[in-house]
């Protein structure tokens, strides 16, 4: 478990992915690193890929984008959810939120 926490602390996986890694380790799939590699669980860190996913979420939900532009930052949750769904939970939600607010401010 300490090894998995170190990966979370290093930003390689998030809490959701950590659960999957622990399940894999307990299921005999190998070390945390081996589980991450075999299941493709590492967080997406490519800024271009994240930015493109954010752009698609904004285009898909212009009403939410308008709310954010009008100052309702809490509405970003809907777009964050759309990006996380597209990225299969492998995006850093905090970074996605930053990108959304940057693009819509």
Protein model, in words:
The chain has two domains: 38 residues; 58 residues, Arc Repressor Mutant, subunit A (Orthogonal Bundle). Helices cover 70% and strands 0% of the residues. It contains seven helices and no strands. Helix 1 packs antiparallel against helix 2, helix 4 packs across helix 7 and helix 6 packs across helix 7. It is elongated. The protein starts with a helix and ends with a helix.
* Strand residues, percent: under 5%
The oligomeric status of these chains comes to single chain
CATH architecture of the largest domain: Orthogonal Bundle
Main sheet properties: none
Q: Note poorly predicted spans.
A: none
Number of separate helices: 7
Q: Give the averaged pLDDT, no decimals.
A: 94
The value of Rg in angstroms is: 16 Å
Gross geometry: elongated
How many β-strand stretches? 0
CATH topology of the largest domain: Arc Repressor Mutant, subunit A
CATH class of the largest domain: Mainly Alpha
In terms of structural class, how would the helical and strand content be classed? mainly alpha
Order of helices and strands: HHHHHHH
Percent range for helical residues? 55-70%
Whole-number count of domains: 2
Terminal residue distance: 40 Å
